[in-house]
Design brief:
Chain lengths: ~625, ~100
């Protein structure tokens, strides 16, 4: 059966080709069903493989499917090979499972769009690339998928390219990602330089034999790639703008799957990260800072999708925090639960926009609770899940992260304290949004209010399934009692390292329960505050905002990071391009060389053409001189 | 008579022809000089034919004379045509093949 791993990425590729090439001859129904079915087939294949994987002993849970040698030059060779172990299995199931639901939802959401076929073919292409990324057995296949998802992200953010702002957002995402990819690529070069191979097993098993500075450098370079793809400081700026894409895209690419690629990559190369305390601390600190920064920005944002986008950035920060303290299984666990509830919230937000003729400003919503009941109830579940309320999925994963941030040998009390604060902020901004959108009086435009309607079944059913997953998804890993998920994943992370180094260095079961209780209290406080401010005393937010005007403006303008980047990077870059690269280098050097070679030819020809005098006798003389020279050469030479 | 005599005469004739072609302006004279060169070659052919006791050379001369006769007809016709067009037969004034 392991010879059929290639089928998993193959189905979406097929869907992409059919919908991409023949899309304009097919009806919406056929396109939608085909696109979704291909992802479902991948999902089914993955489920079968998953169950076969669980039949094996935990240490031997690994399928490898080598298709052919992609390239072999000198000492370098790379195979097109897929790897299906516990980590890949979780990723593939999340990508195809959540992806399938989002595909189905898109049938309803994109109904009537001119680019319906284009949308589904891109979505399939994305799924294909993402599956390459998580299934690849070497860094090269992973990088191929990595670039592929970046391309699809660009294509789908700028899906409505008639709008220049959206096209710009696509460009921004692509360019910012390129910066990260540059680091990633150099990291890969270094890996090849020092290890002589790009194969995961070869590299990871040899990691211990390299000097620490090499490992640290490689890890930091790979992390640069991760900050680009997974929207961490300093490269997170593209993700909020990426909301220009259709909402299912935001749910699939910019919440559930692609942006988690960085987390996956760090977990995949965990055997290297654990060798470098510096790299781990950098990952943890960047993750924590990003989580805090994004959570504070989300508090003031007025755009329903931007709040979710910053929330995604913040939750990704959590995952990096977990990875940074060595709790890789926990990072992946949160990745999975986050995929459930964040996809749910994005799709629900899409359903709200669908009801309100694509309104995204939460100030123009309100009172929707009874008008779009299903959307409201699923959104409500998502809100509880992300806030970390027992027994919803987010509780288990987030609490696990906070506990590991404290108890791991790489953790600290500060990590835990800040993490808990962020949990409170998360609960607050999420419920601020829910209360503003669904409660209170309606502030919807009169024209729009006439058309409010619940979304069709094809959209609400995926919402309900995701809501169910967000409710029970956390139960697969209950610490101490039922840690199935961790036990499933740990062999992957512990394969090349000593597990003893990752035993909790301090803390007890009692303390763990206390911490859980504290974070529950914090979460409820956040929700309660949101309720007070946005339902009971609606004048409060404005009062508070004006009393701390400086802070509010700072947050509302997202710490002016975009402006800062524009000033210190974009503008100088444009200036240098204009003054040096264009005016000097392009005009003088490049054009100079091109025009110069033409000029040299011209002057040589200017001399030679004088021999073409048109006087016949001159030609005859040349002939004679030539003949004499030739004879002279033959006779005397 | 030794063959060198014939060859020296032929060489002198050929050189006169070459010089004439290169230096004279009148197309008709140039043309005559070309004939002179042809006949110098003919003389060499006949001389060698006699010297090596082989008739091939003499046969070849007949071919050359026939071709020369045909060439004269075409050449003179061309010169007449050029004269009609440009009212001159001076070759340095007929420099049409210029850049």
């Amino acid at each position: 059966m392991q010879d059929y791993i290639w089928l998993i990425p193959f189905f979406p590729l097929l869907g992409f080709l059919i919908n991409g090439l023949l899309g304009k001859y097919l009806s919406e129904k056929v396109i939608g069903i085909l696109g979704s079915a291909m992802v479902f087939l991948s999902f089914s294949t993955a489920v079968v493989l998953f169950f076969q994987l669980t039949q094996l002993d935990p240490e031997n849970r690994l399928f490898i499917n080598t298709l052919y040698t992609w390239m072999a030059t000198g000492s370098f060779s790379a195979d097109v090979a897929f790897r299906f172990d516990a980590l890949s299995a979780v990723m593939v199931l999340v990508v195809t499972g959540v992806g399938f639901l989002i595909h189905v939802y898109s049938i309803g959401y994109m109904h009537g769009d001119r680019g319906f076929a284009r949308f589904f073919s891109f979505l399939n292409l994305f799924t294909f690339a993402m599956l390459l990324l998580v299934l690849g057995n070497n860094f090269l296949i992973m990088f191929l998928g990595w670039e592929g998802v970046g391309l699809c992200s660009y294509l789908l953010i700028g899906f409505w390219y008639e709008n220049p702002e959206y096209a710009y957002a696509g460009n921004k995402a692509f360019i910012v990602n390129r910066i990260g990819d540059f680091g990633f690529l150099i990291g890969i070069f270094m890996i090849f330089g020092y290890f002589g191979s790009l194969n995961f097993d070869t590299v990871l098993s040899a990691a211990g034999m390299q000097p620490e500075w090499v490992i640290t450098t490689i890890c930091l370079l790979l992390f640069v790639g991760a900050t680009g793809k997974s929207a961490q400081i300093p490269l997170y700026v593209w993700l909020p703008d990426a909301m220009a894409g259709p909402t299912p895209v935001s749910a699939l690419i910019h919440a559930a799957t692609m942006v988690t690629a960085g987390v996956y990559m760090i977990c995949r190369t965990s055997a290297m990260y654990v060798l470098s305390e510096v790299a781990l601390s950098v990952v943890a600190i960047i993750g924590l800072l990003t989580a805090l920064m994004a959570a504070t920005i989300a508090i003031t944002s007025k755009d329903i999708k931007k709040v979710l986008a910053y929330s995604t950035v913040s939750q990704l920060g959590y995952m990096f925090l977990a990875a940074g303290v060595g709790a890789f299984a926990t990072a992946i666990f949160h990745l999975m639960t986050h995929a459930f509830f964040k996809a749910l919230m994005f799709l629900a937000a899409g359903s709200v926009m669908h009801a309100l003729s694509n309104e995204t400003n939460i100030d123009k919503m309100g009172g929707l609770k009874n008008k779009i009941g299903t959307t409201y109830r699923t959104f409500w579940v998502g809100g509880l899940a992300i806030s970390g309320i027992l027994p919803f999925a987010g509780f288990f994963s987030k609490d696990e992260i906070l506990w590991k941030a404290f108890s791991s040998p790489f953790g600290s009390t500060v990590f835990w304290a800040v993490g808990t604060l962020i949990a409170g902020l998360t609960a607050f901004y999420m419920w601020r949004m829910i209360y503003t959108v669904f409660y209170g009086e309606s502030r919807v435009d009169k024209e729009v209010a006439l058309h409010i309607h619940e979304s069709p079944k094809v959209m609400t059913v995926p919402l309900i399934v995701l809501a169910a997953l967000s409710t029970v998804g956390g139960l697969v890993n209950i610490p101490h009692y039922f840690p199935m998920f961790e036990h499933f994943l740990d062999p992957v992370f512990m394969k090349y390292i000593n597990p003893a180094a990752f035993e909790a260095s301090h803390g007890s079961f009692g303390l763990e329960l206390t911490f859980a209780a504290i974070s529950l209290v914090v979460a409820f406080t956040g929700i309660w505050l949101a309720k007070v401010m946005y339902v009971q005393r609606r004048e409060l937010p404005d009062k508070i905002a004006s009393s701390v005007k400086g802070l509010y403006t700072l947050l509302f303008n997202k710490y002016y990071v975009d402006e800062l980047y524009d000033k210190i990077i974009v503008k100088p870059f444009v200036k240098v391009s204009d003054a040096f690269f264009y005016a000097f280098f392009d005009v003088k050097i490049i054009d100079g060389i091109v025009n110069g070679s033409a000029k040299i030819m011209d002057s040589i020809a200017g001399v030679l053409r004088r021999s073409h005098s048109g006087v016949v006798q001159f030609y005859a003389l040349s002939l004679v001189v030539g003949a004499i020279a030739l004879f002279g050469y033959l006779i005397f030479g | 008579m030794p063959i060198e005599y014939y060859l020296i005469v032929a060489a002198i004739l050929f050189s006169i022809g070459v010089l004439g072609v290169l230096t004279r302006r009148n197309a008709i004279i140039v043309f005559l000089c070309i004939e002179l060169m042809l006949n110098a070659v003919n003389l060499t052919l006949v001389a060698f034919s006699n010297h090596v006791q082989n008739l091939d050379g003499q046969v070849f001369v007949f071919f050359v004379m026939i071709v020369a006769a045909a060439e004269v007809a075409v050449g003179l016709a061309l010169i007449v045509a050029i004269f009609r067009q440009k009212e001159t037969v001076y070759v340095d004034e007929i420099n049409l093949m210029k850049w």
